[in-house]
Amino acid sequence: MKSRLAASIALSALVVVGATGCAGITPQATTIDYSASDGANVPRKGPIEVRNAFFVVDESGTTGNLVAGLVNTTADSATIHITVGDGPGQSVRVAGQKSVSLGGDDAEPLTFEGLDTKAGKTVDVYFQSGSAEGIKYAIPVLDGTLPYYSKLVPSAKPSPAPTTSVAPAVEPTPTPSETPVG
User: How many angstroms separate the Cα of 11 from the Cα of each of 6, 81, 89?
Assistant: First the structure.
């Protein structure tokens, strides 16, 4: 009888461990950080956080608008420097305890030229703010296919108007009068 009781307890313990043990060794999806949008949240380095960053590129993939939320979590104003590849960087100043929405109502997106990408790819972007070391992070690339991104597609820069030289107007030379004035 004791052996049956021991076997029942052992079997019950095995069932309990088997049924619940997976949760103890398997990562839970709800504990994994991810960006629940089309953009990427850049790991924090410095006083300014970069949230939901993505590019919207033109048809050729050579010009792109960086759209992002920049949040300064400190009391002091700070500047973030953003560089794509070997091209020139751009800087944005964010007041203390404030945010700037690039591509939103309060700021235009930052336009970067010389990209070589297409929608569906990523672009490595270097972000640096404050005295912290910067971080290079892969930012997703989108296009204007979705209606709510169509307004963010970089517009073609107007080509410079051709300059035409106009000859100065020729004024007729007065003919000398025959009677001296005087």
Answer: 8, 62, 65
Q: Give the percent of the chain with pLDDT over 90.
A: 58
Of 103-107, 151-155, 160-164, the one with minimum mean pLDDT is 160-164
Neighbour-count burial of 31, counting CB atoms closer than 10 A to its CB (0-12 exposed, 13-18 middle, 19+ buried)? exposed
d(CA 172, CA 151): 56
Q: What is the pLDDT of residues 97-121, one digit of tens each?
A: 999 999 977 678 999 999 999 999 9
DSSP code for 98 = -
Structure tokens at 103: 């591509």
Q: Are strands 63-72 and 90-94 parallel, antiparallel or unpaired?
A: unpaired
- Helix H or strand E segment including 84: strand 78-84
Report the distance separating Cα 94 and Cα 78, nearest Å: 6
pLDDT category of residue 22 using cuts at 50, 70 and 90: low
Q: Is the pTM of this model over 0.90?
A: no
Spatial separation of the C-alpha atoms in residues 102 and 93, rounded to whole Å: 12
Task: Indicate the residue type of 60.
Answer: S
